[in-house]
Task: inverse folding
């Protein structure tokens, strides 16, 4: 494999449709070692934690390199077969759309939506980006809007970490929510979005 020509021929062979179909057939259904199995909650949490630590330790240059590689890969796939690329994008959009039905609009979000519409702001409810859900996205703009309840998100006017200065002490759920809010914001801002929190 040190020979560049052999390496090139090997890559072409492994990336051929014929080989991919053979591998897929060999690993499909009950032949797949993971057939009928699921990850335990503990395993899922370990994976999430490991990925989170990995992302946190990346430098801005490393993040940019990963982003550029992903963009380049998408461009290569698109140029290779534009029709298939478009079909796959549509499939992904449908899956994303279906996943959003889990979220039902609450009273606060309904009021915010009514207000925005009355002001002529065109918004879409419940946007999924990566592994995060955001309450609203302003259409045609890179603006996200989050509606955070005082209790669940531990508003700093009423709660703090140790319950000092006449405020209530944050509980474990509120602390986790605040960390998730921070992660969500970083994820979106890193992708060029502005977040407005109500």
Result:
């Amino acid at each position: 494999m040190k020979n560049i020509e052999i390496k090139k021929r090997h890559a072409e062979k492994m990336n051929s449709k014929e080989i991919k179909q053979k591998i897929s057939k060999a690993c499909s259904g009950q032949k797949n070692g993971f057939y009928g199995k699921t990850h335990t909650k503990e395993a899922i949490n370990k994976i999430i934690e490991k990925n989170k630590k990995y992302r946190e330790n990346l430098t801005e240059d490393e993040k940019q390199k990963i982003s550029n590689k992903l963009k380049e890969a998408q461009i290569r796939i698109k140029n290779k077969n534009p029709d298939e690329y478009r079909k796959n994008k549509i499939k992904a959009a449908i899956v994303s759309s279906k996943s959003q039905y889990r979220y039902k609009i609450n009273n606060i979000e309904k009021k915010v939506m009514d207000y925005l519409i009355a002001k002529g702001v065109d918004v879409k409810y419940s946007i999924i980006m990566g592994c995060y859900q955001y309450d609203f996205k302003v259409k045609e703009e890179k603006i996200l809007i989050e509606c955070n309840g005082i209790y669940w998100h531990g508003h700093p006017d009423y709660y703090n970490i140790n319950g000092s200065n006449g405020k209530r002490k944050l509980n474990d759920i509120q602390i986790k929510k605040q960390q998730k809010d921070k992660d969500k914001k970083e994820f979106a801002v890193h992708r060029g979005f502005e977040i407005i929190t109500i």
